[in-house]
Fold Helix-turn-helix domain containing protein.
Amino acid sequence: MGARNQAIINPLNAKSRRKIHLACEEMDFTWCDDEVKKFEDMWLQGEGIGEIAGELERDPDEVLILLIDRARNNKLIIKRPNGLMGLPI
């Protein structure tokens, strides 16, 4: 096994499994405070996930996970008429 597979993070709420698959291992789900603030500002301005991802230079799927995180923690995420797509042009 390569060095990449040597350390497996085991969160306290993880179920015990015999063989695991780490989903989206190639993605980066870490965010600095400035990026989170920029995401929240753009979301509240009606920007779509694609535009936010472009501005933050991130994969749209990484931005989507941040959206889910913010929504689960009741952090400024509001329902919008066009949802993920943002305001109509």
About this structure: The chain has a mean pLDDT of 80. The helical segments are 33-44, 49-56, 60-72. The chain has three helices and no strands.
